[in-house]
Specification:
- By secondary structure, this protein is α/β, with parallel strands linked by helices.
- It has one domain (3-271): TIM Barrel (Alpha-Beta Barrel), CATH 3.20.20.
- Helix content is 34%, strand content 18%.
- It contains eight helices and 13 strands.
- It has helices at 29-46, 72-86, 97-104, 120-128, 146-154, 181-186, 216-225, 255-271, and strands at residues 18-22, 50-53, 90-93, 109-112, 132-136, 161-165, 168-169, 175-176, 191-194, 200-201, 210-211, 230-236, 250-251.
- The chain has an eight-stranded parallel barrel with strand order 1-2-3-4-5-6-9-12, surrounded by six helices. Strands 7-8 form a two-stranded antiparallel sheet.
- The longest helix has 18 residues, at 29-46.
- It is globular, with a radius of gyration of 17 Å.
- The protein starts with 17 loop residues before the first strand and ends with a helix.
- InterPro entries: Aldolase_TIM (IPR013785), DAHP1/KDSA (IPR006218), KDO8P_synthase (IPR006269).
- Belongs to the KdsA family.
- Keywords: Cytoplasm, Transferase.
- Pathway: Bacterial outer membrane biogenesis; lipopolysaccharide biosynthesis; Carbohydrate biosynthesis; 3-deoxy-D-manno-octulosonate biosynthesis; 3-deoxy-D-manno-octulosonate from D-ribulose 5-phosphate: step 2/3.
Length: 272
Amino acid sequence: MRLEKIPQLQHVNSNNFFLLAGPCAIEGEEMALRIAEKVLEITDKLQIPYVFKGSFKKANRSRIDSFSGIGDEKALKILRKVSETFKIPTVTDIHETSDAALAAEYVDILQIPAFLVRQTDLVVAAANTGKVVNLKKGQFMSPESMKHAVTKVTDCNNEQVMITDRGTMFGYQDMIVDFRGIPTMREFAPTVLDVTHSLQQPNQSSGVTGGRPDMIETIARAGIANNVDGLFIETHYDLSVAKSDAANMLDLKYLEKLLSNLVAIRKTVNLL
């Protein structure tokens, strides 16, 4: 995959990592624009290629009464408005084959959720849109096995594919990141580290996923030191009202300091 092929992606020659960041889910137009504007301000300052992330719907909820979205087309139109307003690319995840063509009308990158990355029809539907495809490594999969998911995309004559590691299940209620997998997956495609989802604590008795946001910088630093191509960070300006994944998202007020530190590490790594 070539970064310059992603529409409207800026700072592609900065020799920096790229960033997929935004709220877990699109909750409304004002919140999406507010988050995008702030992240763009920071990434422009630091010359980080930036893709706005937001789920247009959440299909993989623990409880039936969990927030799942504001309406598919309404959320997708907000993603399009973010892109048009700030001249930045966008990414959203899809869950069914019919979602691929629908979402492709509004966003630049289609993301396959970790639980669904072995679903051949879904991966092929995303690949056949011609959009960039972001494959999230299953929490139950080895890094080596992601080669086959990548091949499903490239066999559809779509070379625009990346892999995102979002941690591996460790017992029933924790995740770990095995950094040995980063160089392995980079042999197949550019590799992103999903910092915030890697710190989830799923399967809580309450039915609401927990998390360890205090470890975000630790995991992110390790990713940059180990040459990940990009980072994935979910963020929100008010976690007390965030409707999805509030327990593991990064408070937006901490993002600039975090990214500044990571850029400094990246510069050091580039000198080695």
